[in-house]
Write a structure and sequence with these properties.
The chain has about 150 residues and is mainly beta. It is built from one helix and eight strands. It comes from Methylacidiphilum caldifontis.
Length: about 150
């Protein structure tokens, strides 16, 4: 499975429009080689370089299995949003207090739809996904406090 974006390259800076203090819009994401048996997709974006440990920016599940593109600033119809560490059920972009941080987008192909209420956390999602992941892919971008 592959995850890519026309808005940034792997290991390169995320675009300014993604920043929490700018437009706060998610980049376009593209999925390839999704397993045929996939019943739904899940997506997590987090920052392992946050001062207090990994900071969760975006949590989505029950993304329709046939989804191959999540357009910039959008959530696919039918997808369910979880709670991020800003306390919101949406994408909230980079806002590093200092230095350069890494932002990981991870997509998971699942063999089921998840029975999980809107606003659930990343930890709750990971627990529900356990044993149901057919494949996964990740894409990392960076963002600096001085961006």
């Amino acid at each position: 499975m592959k995850l890519s974006s026309p808005d940034f390259e792997k290991g390169k800076p995320l675009p300014r429009f993604c920043a929490y203090h700018s437009e706060n819009r998610s980049p376009e994401l593209r999925f390839e080689d999704v397993p045929e048996q996939t019943k739904s997709l899940a997506l997590i974006m987090d920052d392992p370089d946050a001062p207090r440990g990994t900071w969760v920016h975006w949590v989505l599940w029950n993304i329709p299995a046939e989804t191959r593109v999540i357009k910039k600033g959008e959530i696919p119809p039918g997808a369910v949003a979880g709670r991020n560490d800003f306390g919101n059920t949406q994408f909230d972009g980079p806002a590093p207090p200092s230095g350069v941080h890494r932002y990981y987008f991870r997509v998971y192909a699942l063999d089921t739809l998840l029975q999980l209420p809107r606003g659930s956390t990343k930890a709750e999602l990971l627990k529900k996904m356990h044993g149901h992941v057919l494949a996964s892919a990740e894409l990392m971008g960076t963002f600096s406090a001085s961006h």
